[in-house]
Amino acid sequence: MPQLNPNPWFLIMLLSWLTFSLIIQPKLLSFTPTNPPSNKTSTTMKTMPWPWPWT
């Protein structure tokens, strides 16, 4: 069964992960987000209890 032979596929997987980790990922992480988070304080809404008709 040739699909169980890890000889060519392990090297391909290893090289692809190294390429992603060392080349592509730092380039992607260097981008600044278009919408940076704001420093606004969150407002809490006052909730009203539900007026049940049978109580």
UniProtKB/TrEMBL annotation:
Keywords: ATP synthesis, CF(0), Hydrogen ion transport, Ion transport, Membrane, Mitochondrion, Transmembrane, Transmembrane helix, Transport. GO terms for molecular function: proton transmembrane transporter activity. It is a single-pass membrane protein. Residues 35-55 are annotated as: Disordered. It is found in: Mitochondrion membrane. It comes from the Eukaryota. It holds the Pfam family ATP-synt_8. One of its GO terms (cellular component) is proton-transporting ATP synthase complex. InterPro entries: ATP8_metazoa, ATPase_protein_8. GO terms for biological process: proton motive force-driven ATP synthesis. The chain crosses the membrane at residues 6-24. Belongs to the ATPase protein 8 family. This is ATP synthase complex subunit 8.
